[in-house]
Amino acid sequence: MTDEQKAVFLLLDRIKNEGLQWYRHAALEDVAVFERRISGKFSIFDGGELHEIGLKPSGSLPSKTILVMQPSANENEAILGLWLKWNFASNPFEFRLFVGQWSQIAGTKTFIAFRFEAPETGEQHNYYHCQPCRDFGDRDPVPHAVLISHRFPTIPVNATNIVELTVCALMACIGHKDMKAFVRKLLRDSSAADNAPLKAAYSRCCH
After folding, report:
1. Distance in angstroms (rounded) separating the CA atoms of residues 122 and 132
2. What ranges in the chain are assigned the alpha helix state H?
3. CA nearest 143: which of 109, 116, 114, 117?
4. How many whole angstroms separate alpha carbon 61 and alpha carbon 48?
5. What angle do CA 2, 172, 201 make, to 5 degrees?
6. Cα–Cα distance between 133 and 130 in angstroms, integer?
7. Residue 46 and residue 16 in contact, taking contact as beta carbons nearer than 8 Å
8. Cβ neighbours for 106, distance < 8 A, ≥ 6 positions apart
9. Closest CA to 150 of 187, 121, 122, 125
């Protein structure tokens, strides 16, 4: 596992643990909202496959699972989830981090997602970018998905590696202030304190 891959693991493992802690201590009405939003289609990821990032050259989180995140104060009835797929053996390597939101707007259930991706082959998307999508890791559209093109727009992301891309994706979910505090707290952990790519991502993306 390279230092960059370890940094991604550390970020997502902390998100996983905090999301599980929120869910396990959530009020009954919040749990009910979660179950109404995704029950029968997705489950919460609480396994150990995250450690396979980098240890396995290619892989993904289990299908139909999400890393659940605590809802923001402004979106109490929305569910935020993450899903990851990678292939470090290909050239160029593939890295896709999906961010999805299940919510109800004006009485209508909706789902919208974005995939944050490493540069691709060719001159069209050969930069770190983000694209909207109607699925969440496979080719099947998620029920209630917003009818949006999964190819346009392709939004450039201010990242130079997978650590910065992950930080940017998480910042899109929780905002700059909370992301800064999140990474700063993570860097105080002994497992992350000496990780140079994580420190560099904090300095470049969170300041």
Report:
1. 20
2. 3-24, 28-38, 162-174, 176-187, 196-205
3. 109
4. 9
5. 35
6. 10
7. yes
8. none
9. 125
**Rg for the chain (alpha carbons), in Å?**
16
How is residue 152 written in tokens? 């346009």
SS3 state at 64:
coil
Question: Domain residues of the chain, as ranges?
Answer: 3-175
Each residue of 20-45: pLDDT tens digit? 888 887 766 666 777 777 766 788 88
Q: Which residues contact 135 (CB under 8 A, 6 or more apart)?
A: 113, 141, 142, 145, 150
The first and second tokens of residue 80, run together, are 């935020």
* Segment 127-150, tens digit of pLDDT: 999 999 988 877 777 888 888 887
Kindly report the pTM of this predicted structure.
0.92
Residue holding tokens 């929120």? 22
**CB of 88 closer than 8 Å to CB of 58:** yes
34 vs 96: CA distance, rounded Å: 24
